[in-house]
Write a structure and sequence with these properties.
alpha/beta, Rossmann fold, six-stranded mixed beta sheet, four-stranded antiparallel beta sheet, 10 strands, 32% helix, globular, binds adenosine-5'-triphosphate, binds magnesium ion
């Protein structure tokens, strides 16, 4: 049987009286890349924040890496790398300083070594002295990804990592995600770019907080019952 890194059922979140995530089931096997699609405001960020323990669901149950999403959020946070939708690093610090600072905030040991490893892994070492504020969109996302894998997480939750990134940098970021997944990383990545769907093992599509469709690209296409005429 496939081992699931993420296994949640009936996940629900309300803000006031509005249900923004409604009864969603998500299962992601270890080492796979799952794409998380849906229009603006459909509940992707809210779902991701519930999965990494930053938001408490109003209903639902399940586990991330075997830890209960309601009761063991501290354990989950240690093993999950969460890349926020908005760039949240320090423009005045260099790449290296940003990564080191992040490592220090998390109270990690061997900060210089971990920083060097993360920079090398993402090809950032030759830009390590450049201040984050002067980086292009693609390099900013690379820095964010480096900071996100610093603590050697087993799951990556990436919230629109390719938004505002040019096609070449997007392709490179996806190549990097492919390599991380080959090394065993489980990745749930939200995006609005439909061409990125084919880089995912499976897709999850939500709208207005409801799960609309999921499966492989082919399964999703088949479920639409649309025919292409050429
Ligand atoms: N803290 C909050 N308080 C109240 N409403 C919220 C809060 N966070 C999100 N919402 C609302 O919940 C809904 C889902 O938002 P969410 O950010 O999860 O969507 P999304 O799919 O990530 O959208 P986008 O593609 O624009 O990033 C939206 O209507 C949003 O306005
Ligand atoms: Mg969002």
């Amino acid at each position: 049987m496939t081992e699931l890194a993420i296994d949640v059922k009936r996940l629900t979140k309300k803000f006031g009286s509005r249900i923004v995530v409604n009864n969603i089931d998500i299962q992601v096997p270890k080492g796979k890349i799952y794409g998380f699609f849906g229009p603006n405001g459909s509940g992707k960020t809210t779902t991701i924040r519930m999965l990494c323990g930053l938001l408490t669901p109003d209903a639902g149950e399940g586990t991330c890496l075997g830890y209960d999403i309601m009761a063991q959020t501290q354990m989950i946070r240690k093993k999950v790398g969460y890349m926020t939708q908005k760039f949240s690093f320090w423009d005045d610090l260099t790449i290296q300083e940003n990564v080191e600072f992040t490592a220090n905030i998390f109270g990690m040991d061997h900060v210089s070594e971990r920083t060097r490893e993360a920079l090398v892994k993402l090809g950032l070492q030759h830009r390590s002295d450049q201040s984050a504020g002067t980086l292009s969109g693609g390099w900013k996302q690379r820095l964010a990804l480096a900071a996100c894998i610093l603590h050697q997480p087993e799951i990556l939750l990436l919230d629109e990592p390719t938004a505002g990134v040019d096609p070449k940098a997007r392709r490179e970021l996806w190549d990097e995600l492919g390599r991380l997944s080959e090394d065993g990383m489980t990745i749930l990545v939200s995006t609005h770019y439909m061409d990125e769907a084919e880089r995912c093992h499976e897709l999850i599509y939500i709208a207005y907080g409801n799960l609309i469709v999921r499966g492989s690209t082919q399964q999703v296409i088949d479920q639409t019952h649309l025919k292409t005429l050429e």
